[in-house]
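Researcher: Next sequence.
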Amino acid sequence: MGNIKDVKAYRIVEEKDLPEVHGKGYVLEHIKTKARVLIIENDDVNKVFNIGFRTPPYDDSGIPHIIEHSVLCGSKKYPVKDPFVELAKGSLNTFLNAMTYSDKTVYPIASFNQKDFENIMSVYLDAVFYPDIYIHDEIMKQEGWHYELDSVDGDLKYNGVVYNEMKGVYSSPESIMYRGIESSLMPDTPYGNDSGGNPEFIPTLTLERFRDFHRTYYHPSNSYIYLYGDCDMAKELEFIDEEYLSHYDYKEIDSAIPLQKPFDEMKDITMDYSIADTDPEENNSILTYSKITGLSTEKKKVTALEILEYVLMDAPGAVLKKALTDAGIGEEVYSSFDNGCQQTTFSIIARGADNNDKDRFIKVIDDTFEELSHGVDKAAIEAAINKFEFKHKEANFGRFPKGLMYGLDAFNSWLYDDTKALMFFEMNDVYKELREDLQNGYFEQLIKECFIDNTFGLYLTMNPKKGLDQENEKKIADELAAYKATLSREELEKIVEDTKALKEYQATPSSAEDLAKVPLLAIDDIDKEAEKLKNVESEIGGLPVVSHDIFTNGIGYLRFYFNINDIDNDLVPYLATLTCLFKYIDTEKHTYGQLSNEIDSNIGGIEFDMVGYASDTDIKKFFYVSMKALYEKLPYAVELMKEILFSSKIDDRKRLKELLTEEKSSMKNGMAASGHVTAYTRAMSYIDEGARFTDETCGIAYYEFLCDIVDHFDEKYDDFIEKLQYALAEVLRKGALTVSYTGDEDVTDLLEESFADFGMALSTRPAHKDVKVFEKELKNEGFKTASQVQYVAIAGNFEDAGYKYDSSLSVLKIIFSYGYLWENVRVKGGAYGAMCSFLRNGTCYMSSYRDPNLMETYDIFKNAYKFVENFECSDRDMTKYIIGTMAQIDAPTTPVAEGISHMARYFMGVTDEQIQSERDKILSTDRDAIRALAPLVKAVTDSGIICAIGGESRIEENKDNFKDVLAIF
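Model: Next structure:
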């Protein structure tokens, strides 16, 4: 390992020990170009590289976003059409993406394999500094926008990946709302423009302006380079300098973000948003209250506002949320604190509101702030500080590498102040100071400064309008028709030719010679041995326990799984309802606010949910409780779980209605935003018991259940409560319980008493033998929404046709995702994405995301088997697909996620031998093995099962392809 101090091309600006991330931080400056460099050197094997640029937009055409897509479409050293996809196919990356923010564009990657890490870093550096956008006009047309005309007599259209992506974004009322807040609060800065692009203005972008933006901002002098992990940092720095930075001279680039001048009085703005014809206009407005609260570089203030947001709006019993809920304002009340721009924004939002309640909405907020300025709930604040401290110690970012998230957080200060690159890597001092500040009125003063005495803000009201999407579509169609009418036949023929040329460009593969330039690992770089399962059976306090010995940094994780396979399916949505009620209703001992404080003050958290684990032959369904705490606090976590399960006042009529109404509103927005998941889950639910279970607990079926209860609450209340109580009693059965424990300490003695006590409270009833059998029901539904894009899904089951699961299907998933589906649904079709999955029990799906098409995509899915029948690829490509598959299988996870994965395999009956056998099969997959899967794929695509969610007009135009056309969102 080299020494950073010996690398002569850089000067060290700051050097600091960072015990909270178990490493050392360095801030450097590249001497020749003044490129900024941040290094976090520690022993994390999941290495991270990120290069970012400050990219302030000057209009709404989405230049930063389109460039983000386009630079990954080939470069000087790697002149293939889609090196990003080549990397996704054939690297062991743990993260590979690029993101456009309001003021920056970043290109982060992560890998635990050193050779792979360096390969991807090289491709990304070449992409940002030497992209092929100056050689191929087709790149901007494909990724941004282009005119599309198949014949002189046809309709002129717009198409393009970003154009269609942003049509999807602008179909979301919430996205429009946040854009409206940001642009209205900071109109005199780049934040007044949409870096992602407004579909109305994306077609104004010219090739010249597109390239000029890249020339201006994608220069080392405007770059921010981040390295994290157990790399040889000196070696990486030398590579970056020698291959890229040293080829540039310093350039003065004015990319600084100006501050918005504060307002003398609050702004008041009204906007419309589109709803479906079947949606009510009454009580469907969105009310917002937003304030600029300071700068993102103010570490203590930012942290205090995050804590305050939790106490005021997020925690069960949050005082401001409760005040708005008690006032009956809106179906769903929530907040947002945004410190991702230079000036921070605190927003309070009420959805499903009466627009006549705007003044009352504002008054409730102002009155609550006034009351809090005279004294906050110190217990609630202290509990919140404990919660944030625990979260910081745990560093659990789900599927995202922690080094990646640390680096993205660093941009929130580093981008605006070169001296504050390391600011967010040290947080313990802030938590300590804020705890001390509880006694000196700091939080009360903060409320006064940021809310009561602050006129730098906005009241934004969004009112629903039926037919708005159709108006916009007609406006675009009319403009295109009018433009077409001005063109000569020769000009029209030129557009037809350009359309054909683009499709030919998209259909023409990169040469084998160019593809060979993209660096690739070898199969030998992959560990042949599968990781062994860590499932050890034991008993604690009379309860069966499966332990997973995994290092967890002093935190213990428990999951109490209650098997509900013997419970009638009709009770499933009632159990799903309980998962959203627990913690948010009073118990016999605590109000839900006090309960929240108890949880946050003592443990890391407690959650309630449901899950199904499908094996080759059956599915095991569970209601579960998960909790996390420092080891010594685990017994108290069990005590709190017992209190919630056995003494929650689920018959609190007023609170119950509030929570169900809020859940209904939240689900409606969430399902529409993740339309691809909603669509493929619903499609699979027609034929698969596991998918039906998911649909009944968090999908369309559950949403319909909630709507029915909320809409007829008074008349159904008594029966609903009775079934809730009965369902809960059916779950809490000792014979149905298995406990999962993840940690590296033996907690048998610690938990013996609390487990025994909990077990004594459980029912000893035997399992029911008469269980309702799952019945298939092919509904083939089309769901109409106020959307400008579609989400198309098909499903099927190859076992029904007599075929068995083959682990080579894991490789086919990669081939489809980055080959057939990518090329046809995304590249040629213009959708933002496409995906598929093959389950062990034979159930499969294919789905599109933010898709301008509908039945055209279905036809692509239908013909997928032909692609498999005729599958051909080089040995090099086959190696890529195998490596890409292994990257998903071997992706490092957090300790708790690893424990959950081992437990899932325990329930599914998966053995080490099976895992090794499947690994061997994947590593030996060849072209013949893939072609042999064609009958399985054909069995799925021939099933005729389809579900689509999309714009009203597109669904209606294609209604004959569905059994039912519905409008429930």
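Model: Residues 10 and 31 are 5 Å apart (CA to CA). The chain is about 45% helix and 20% strand.
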